[in-house]
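Input/output pair, single chain:
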Amino acid sequence: MTRADKAKRVATILDELYPAPPIPLDHDSPYTLLVAVLLSAQTTDVRVNLVTPGLFALARTPEAMAEISVENILAEIRTCGLAPTKAKNIRRLSEVLATQHGGEVPASLSELEKLPGVGHKTASVVMSQAFGVPAFPVDTHIHRLAARWGLSTGKNVDKTEADLKKLFPEDTWSKVHLQIIYFGRGHCPARGHDLTSCPICQWAASKRRIAEERRAQSRGRGAR
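Output:
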């Protein structure tokens, strides 16, 4: 089966399971989405949705957040991973938005990537979910599943993004991105996963991949 054939079958399964996947991070503006996505690095979406109400009660615009001290921002997001760095970046990017962008989040991938703490994945999510611009943000989970399913060589996230963009129609990128995330959470975890019983892995993963993951799981159990 070619990669293109696999992608079509994957898309069919994902559409059946998640026909209209919701955006997992609570937000009500491009700015609050940007902050939520920044917070989600090495932190679950559930945790982010728990801390953002308190943070946005302090300030929900760049101008207002730029007036909040880093210490007060940190107090609201302390339970998120990398909280001290994130607090500084939230304050700094808010200042940049307020002083250089008129308080608006720029609808430009390159301008977003210039903001403190905003990398390519975060910028891609904002472009897709806030502005409706086709994008295929690749995090570690999508990177892992694309390699597991044989849709990409899995050398790095940039290569995975390029491979997936070639395989799926551009107008489906944003939806497929979310569908793969939900599928990974519900059906295809990183550890303790039986690939032969997975709705996608059972036919998409190669015999070699299945054997490699079984050996890795066996080594993991032996180390405990």
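The domain at 3-19+137-223 is CATH 1.10.1670.10 (Endonuclease Iii, domain 2). The longest helix spans residues 83-100.
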